[in-house]
Amino acid sequence: MSKKVYIPILIAIIILQILVGVYAANKKEYMHMDEAYSYGLMNYDKISITDDEDFMAGWHDKQYFLDYLEVNSDEVTDLMPVYENQKNDVHPPLFYLLLRIAATFTVDNFTLWTGFIMNMIILAIASVTLFFIAKKLFKSPVYALLVTAVYATSMALMETTIYIRMYALSTLSILLFTYITMKIEENQKDGKIGLKYLILTSLVLLMGGLTHYYFFIYVFGVYVYLLIKHIRRKEYKFLVKYTVTLAISAALYLLIFPYAINHIFFGYRGIDATDPITLQNLIFGIGSYLNEINKAIFNYGLPIYILAVLIIFAVFKIREKRASSKKCNDVKIESQELKQEEIREKKNRNQFILMILIPTLIYFIVVLIQSPYKELRYIMPICPEIVLLTIYVTKLALGKYIKEKYLCTGLAVVFAVIVLTPGLTDNKLNFAYEYRKELVETVEQNNTPIVCVFDPNANRFMDNMYLYTKADRTYIMNVEDYSVEAVREVLKNENVENGVTLVIDNQPKYLSYEEYEKLAW
């Protein structure tokens, strides 16, 4: 397939991906607390709004909460919070800087579309990078288009698009690092590495490291693979140059953001936060993440997919045996030169797949052990690799028995069915929070006051930040002061004819006037 054919198809896939992202974004009804932090940490003068002196025991209008989330006119040129807040929190600053730049296009106005559009652009670049990785791996633009299309229309892509955190940027960083390393491996001879590749490697290392610390796990996996491969080949000159590049990149990184050391080794999300590893925890974690992969990439169809592959394998294996017994004498001996070329190509593909498989597995295992919650967000950055590996392994298993064009068409049909069946499996977007739609509309339309009972020792206030931006009046009450009488006292001068919204234990609930009179909870 020529460039004139596959480039327009790739562009069409990216356009489809953007449409899929817009579809997912329109489903979004609420924010995760970390998304609220994304907006606040890139512009506010402190980490949390709960640190404000006037936060507790008082009424606030919606603008009070919007000020935390939006870039105001007098803040446009002040980028200090981007760096200072990340220094005092547990994440590197690049994602917040990009979100801050995006937010300058919507000054004095908070909108989730700032994050959505930024993620769509990042993921569009990620999908193009994935295409070129797959093209290099499969030696086929057709399979590369299939891999890209599967990821571009997956629930994983949709979740990554609408979850306004650093995971889209981390996805791109991992793919860029993989592609550049593949180019280095492809072009290096006798330990010689082009200077441009070393510079690109360093830039991507800075980009990924300043986005998310888990990026270093993937880099470690790639380095382990390169170390083993080039030591076996006694290509020490290559290893020295590559290692020096990593060391220089690390030094530059620490000059830019030295606080990473404290975050990684001493922070509450760093190494010291690792829970004791038990067999039960491992089994639970593996099960949880496999379920997330099954849902986000296969739309709960992984068991059916595996079964279909096994059945096709068995059928064509039997057919091959019957066919081979009928034509034992009709064998053409290919030229030695052609055989050698095939062996070389196969060897290169095997090396590339190992270079992707090893770091992906290491990333998965470390995240499995380290992540505080077993949720899709922590493995979002390796979802493209999972799609790539799945299709590669399937082709490897069936490619000997089925002609390439038929196999690729068959896989395209299988994944098309998988993509188009969310309605049948009731597969919902986790980060859309569609179940909150009615509550938000009720608060907006009825203009109901909100009373939030806040527990400073279990600070989950940001869980409902989005709701507070929809109400004209929100009162923050310390949990120690909470009682039915205290709530009634706070609301005695408020108009509650259209109802009240109470937030207790971070769970919001709308009460009609009649329910409020009984204070049913």
Attribute tags:
521 residues, globular, 5 strands, 63% helix, mainly alpha
Unreliable runs, pLDDT <50, ≥5 residues?
Answer: 328-334
> Strands of the largest sheet, in order across it?
1-3-2-4-5
- What percentage of amino acids are in beta strands? under 5%
Compute the number of helices: 23
Shape: globular
Secondary structure category: mainly alpha
Report Rg.
27 Å
Mean pLDDT: 89
| Fraction in helix | 55-70%
Q: What order do the SSEs take from the amino end to the carboxyl end, as H and E?
A: HHEHHHHHHHHHHHHHHHHHHEHEHEEH
Largest sheet: 5 strands, mixed
Let me know the number of strands: 5
What is the distance, rounded to the nearest whole angstrom, between the alpha carbons of the first and last residues? 64 Å
List the helices and strands and how they pair.
Blueprint: H1 3-25, H2 33-41, E1 58-60, H3 62-69, H4 80-88, H5 94-103, H6 113-138, H7 141-152, H8 155-162, H9 167-187, H10 195-209, H11 215-232, H12 236-256, H13 260-266, H14 279-296, H15 302-326, H16 336-370, H17 383-398, H18 404-419, H19 422-425, H20 437-446, E2 450-454, H21 465-468, E3 474-478, H22 484-491, E4 500-504, E5 507-511, H23 513-518
Parallel strand pairs: 2-3, 2-4
Antiparallel strand pairs: 1-3, 4-5
Helix pairs in contact: 1-6, 1-7, 1-8, 6-7, 6-8, 6-9, 6-17, 7-17, 7-18, 9-10, 9-11, 10-12, 11-16, 16-17
Question: What would a concise description of this structure say?
Answer:
Helix content is 63%, strand content 4%. The protein has 23 helices and 5 strands.
Please, could you describe this protein's structure?
It is built from 23 helices and five strands. A five-stranded mixed sheet has the order 1-3-2-4-5. The termini are far apart. It has a domain at 279-325 and 362-425. With 521 residues, it is mainly alpha-helical. The radius of gyration is 27 Å and the shape is globular. Helix 6 (113-138) runs antiparallel to helix 7 (141-152), helix 9 runs parallel beside helix 11 (215-232) and helix 11 runs antiparallel to helix 16 (336-370). Helix content is 63%, strand content 4%.
